[in-house]
Structures are given as C-alpha cells and as structure tokens.
Amino acid sequence: MRTEMRSIWKTLGGVPIGDVVDFVREHARDGQVVHLGTDSIQLARHTRFVTVVAILTPGRGGRAIWAREVRPRIASLRERLLREVWLSVELGLRLDPVVPGRSTSTSTPTRSRGTRAARTCRSWWAWS
C-alpha cells in the first residue's frame, strides 16, 4: 500500500499550490539548493506531521512550501520518527527526477540531542 501525503501543499503565505513536483520543477534551477524535511508534534488525540520543501538561491533568499498530515496519536517515539523519515524519503524519491544537478545526501547532525532512536532516525536531504 502506497502512503502518500494527501494534504494540500501551501506557500508560507497560505496560498494553495497544485502539485509539489510541478512546483519544484518550475522553481528549482541550476545553482539552487532544494531542502526537504518532516517534523511532528504530539497533541492530545492526534499526531501532526508537517513536511517542508525549501528552494534556496544562495545570497538571494528562497521559496518554501509545506503540507500537514494529521493522524491518530502515535504512542511510540520510534514509530513517530520512522513516519517522519518515511514522509521525507517518499517525497525525496518523487522529487528526485525533477531537481537539476542533484546529489542526494542523508546525514545525522553531529550535535544532535535526544535519544539514540531520535539521532538515528533524523533525516536530512539536500540536492545541490
């Protein structure tokens, strides 16, 4: 079963956009860096995931879009972190064909705090 973020992608100003792949194809050019990542927060009855795509032009600013997914509360930290990673990796695989001059890297920040599971599961993707 393929899980796909069914949320509406929006700009930081709240303007809905069509398809995330089309948006990145239109706005990512050579010399720009595309970052994506997912984070989550536990609420009383739900877990909220937010995925962000940022397209940066060094020295000139950038553009960002985001989408939110709400699921029933996930009690396990490990399961929640794996879901964060899954959402980022799935989107990264969808964007991979449209990002020009890409090189994919996944790493864990060296000054990461938190549990060993959190340090293990954090995922950072960047194409440059």
Explain this structure to me?
This protein is an alpha+beta fold and 128 residues long. The protein has one domain. The chain is 26% helix and 30% strand. It is built from three helices and five strands. It has helices at 20-27, 77-95, 116-121; strands spanning 10-11, 33-42, 46-57, 61-72, 125-127. The longest helix has 19 residues, at 77-95. The protein is elongated and about 40 Å long.
Looking at how many chains there are and whether they match, the oligomeric state comes to single chain
Major sheet size, sense and barrel closure = 5 strands, antiparallel
Average pLDDT level? 79
Low-pLDDT stretches are 1-5, 103-128
Q: Could you give the order of the helices and strands?
A: EHEEEHHE
Sheet/helix structural class: alpha+beta
Beta-strand content estimate:
25-35%
- The geometry reads as elongated
